[in-house]
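Hi Y.,

Following your request, here is the sequence exactly as I used it, all 488 residues.
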Amino acid sequence: MEQPSSIAIARDRLRQTQPRSLLNLRMLGFAMARAWVYLMFLGTAASSMTWNGQTVPGIAYLGSTVMLCATLLASAVLHERFAALIGKPSFRALGPVLVASGTLALASATLPGAPEVALCLAGALLTGGGSGIIDLGYGELYRNVDPRCTSFEAPLAFFIAAALFPLVLGLPSVLACIVCALLPAVSGWILFVKMKAWSPSREPAVKPFEIHLGSFAWKIGVCACLIGLADGVVRAVFMTSIGASAESFYRFPLLWSSLLTMAIIYGCVLFSRETGLRPVYRSVMLVMAVFFMLLPVFTGYSEIESTIALTGYGTFNVLIWILLADISFTYRLSSHMVFGIGWGMVTLGVLLGSAAGQAVCALAPFQPQTLSLIALLATLAILISYMFVFSESDLIALAKGDEEKADAAEPKRQRFQDRCKEVADEYGLSPKETEIMVLFAKGRSSTRIQEELYLSRGTVTTHLRHIYQKMDVHSKQEFLDVIEGRQG
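Below is the corresponding structure, written out as tokens. Let me know if you'd prefer a different format.
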């Protein structure tokens, strides 16, 4: 049978996704949480988010990031204690309250006569701890969302956050601070009140944190640390080389880079003949490598250079979020374990990258040869991550799960395969009908079967109708009864 074209595949996937459904409260709340991060701590102190527009000392950014990293990692290490805490409504409400309060504390740190050190310290602790709870809350929401929806929602949320960034920066300082404090409050209301993250009505994780999947989360984290380190150095060095302020470096290039991120991820998800995250992962790593190598070419073209510098790592962040959501959804793992380790290591990578970038910038001014060398070293870090740390083989193993190993190890799985073969022989099913019948008996939806076998919706529907006719069944329950030998 002739395989459908890439255009046909994209059209079917887009139809299944229903683009209108992407504009939902979950995505908008997540976008607000990311917008707050951009406004407050996008690689610098909260320079624009103060009542008088003066710069908050960089120690506030450092302290908040350290606290965020500690909160995320602690939620995974102390997962039993954290699981008990998140069952309490008061603890869930703590996240947005801490972030909003910390934002206002930092906004007040530069006022005349204000206790700057105390307010910076309090703001750093409050924003870091509170934003960690919010991040874990959205991880829990996306643990219960089909990964295909997450693949579309996450890039859109990051784009909306990037669009809010210049809009809020354009407001008067006082109004911008108020909006910035409201963003986590509204996001938390959506997260815990409207979407009821971690509420008892939500389906709990049904499996413990398995060691082999834990190693995958650690690999993702180490990969994120390496790439965060490379990106932090590159951004800091090239921002220094062109003499750009943090605001001009990020203001509109962040928006353009988010558009490129959407194009990259949507293009891979829609047009690739492969399912899952493998084509997206390959493309993101390739984009990062190419963009970093291009940076010395565009030195002096500030907006182009800023966009190039931001696109690779921004796309990698979106990919990591999608991947962590996919792991926790597929294996029904607790989100605070998977996101605690994975997103915590992403945060650690950002922190290390920022520190290394500041250290390298002490060597400024840079010669063109130095800029080329830094771009080359950053590219090598990406290639090392892709080839040796979190490689494509890890994604393949994640996609397959333990299904093949379990079939070989568990007699029950083998009996299921044998029974399906018996049914296929008994009712004269064709090889393709047998393949679809096995997937359908495993609980795959028609949409999932289309994705796994690269078939159109009409083809799968036709095959299922023929299977029902040959087996003389009229519902899925009757179909399962035949598989289980309970018919008649």
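The chain has three domains: 16-204, 208-401, 403-483.

Thanks again,
Q.
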